[in-house]
Amino acid sequence: MAAVTSTGSVTSAPRTGATGSGPSELTDRPNKRRAGEVAGGLAVAESRPQVVDGLLRGARCSRCAHPSAQPDVPWCPVCFGPVEECGFDPEGVVWAATTVHLPVGRWAAPFGLAYIDVDDGPRVLVHVAHDPLPRGGDRVGFGITDDGDLAQHGVGDGQNGDPR
């Protein structure tokens, strides 16, 4: 609660826990944004999905079976259960796709992007052909470019918006 002093400045009372009975404590709920030993000492996971040895690296929760495209997560983002590393075949069904008409990084405009629901796996963002753009429900296979982007087979090799 804030209070105004006689000089007109605002002060605040110390934060209290959920019960209002004492100072706020670190929660025991997993939180990868807090670094340090007190909060688990966990590093933030690599955010870009990776295809290694022909498989999309990932993880699956041992408790709820939720798939993730990040193999280095320390727990399930849904139920906080334990996860096991696994690999997914890099193909699936287009959930949604769009054409981007502005250059972004090394990708010259226009280029296509699509969310792909990987077979029995997570949903990932993949560079796709923009002409013709795949439609929802189309099957797409993908791999990884030399720069680490996921791209539909035939995209990222000097065609379809890639400046190489």
Shape, per Cα inertia axes: elongated
How many DSSP helices? 0
Helix content: under 10%
Query: Distance between termini?
Result: 59 Å
- Topology order in helix (H) and strand (E) letters: EEEEEEEEEEE
SSE class: mainly beta
What's the oligomerization state?
single chain
Task: Briefly say what this structure is.
Residues 90-134 form the ChsH2 C-terminal OB-fold domain. With 164 residues, this protein is mostly beta strands. The chain is 0% helix and 34% strand.
Q: Overview of this structure, please?
A:
Residues 155-164 have a biased composition (Gly residues). This is ChsH2 C-terminal OB-fold domain-containing protein. It comes from Gordonia soli NBRC 108243. With 164 residues, this protein is an all-beta fold. Among the domains are: 51-88, no CATH class; 91-152. It is built from no helices and 11 strands. Strands 9-8-7-10-11 form a 5-stranded antiparallel sheet, with no helix packed on it. Strands 3, 4, 5 and 6 form a 4-stranded antiparallel sheet that branches. The model is unreliable at 9-26 and 158-164 (pLDDT under 50).
